[in-house]
Design brief:
Layout (H helix, E strand, L loop, with lengths): L5 H22 L5 H26 L14 H11 L6 H12 L3 H12 L4 H8 L3 H18 L1
Helix pairs in contact: 1-2, 3-4, 4-7, 5-7, 6-7
Length: 150
């Protein structure tokens, strides 16, 4: 895939199908017993899809208090693939992946867009719908955290 990762594509598909199911459930006439039963089944499907969506977006089991972002297999693999084109040894790549996974989602996104893809802070702010100053803060925090890990 181009710049969109496979997990982001999967999240987008789940979100789109969730909306389709919601529209279908809303179109059912709950006064009819058969339609009411169908609405219950669809509601269960929606709950399962939302649970899966939450898991994919956060990288950990919904409701879990313990963070699993640092060991998230999907993100580790994704970051490792991105870094595999660089001239680093495997140990350095793994250390870089760990450092990137220690960042919050927003810090990691801003940092990678700025440092790896070369976007300006203004371009990132437009793309993410946040202020330029917020982007600068996220990038600066990410740089500090990465320096600590190296």
């Amino acid at each position: 895939m181009s710049s969109v990762t496979w997990i982001e594509d999967l999240i987008r598909q789940y979100a789109s199908e969730t909306h389709v199911l919601e529209r279908y459930r809303d179109s059912l006439d709950v006064a009819d017993p058969a339609a009411a039963e169908e609405a219950d089944v669809v509601s269960g499907m929606l709950a399962d899809m939302r649970y899966a969506l939450s898991w994919m977006k956060r990288g950990r089991r919904p409701g879990s208090r313990r963070g699993a972002e640092r060991t998230d297999v999907y993100r580790q693999r994704e970051l490792f693939i991105k870094l595999s084109g660089t001239k680093m040894g495997n140990a350095e790549r793994l250390q870089m992946v760990e450092a990137l996974l220690a960042l919050s989602d927003r810090e990691r996104t801003c940092f990678l867009l700025h440092m790896a893809q070369g976007l300006t802070l203004q371009e990132i702010s437009h793309k993410l719908g946040i202020s330029r100053a917020s982007v600068q803060d996220y990038v600066n925090r990410a740089k500090c955290k990465i320096k600590q890990d190296f």
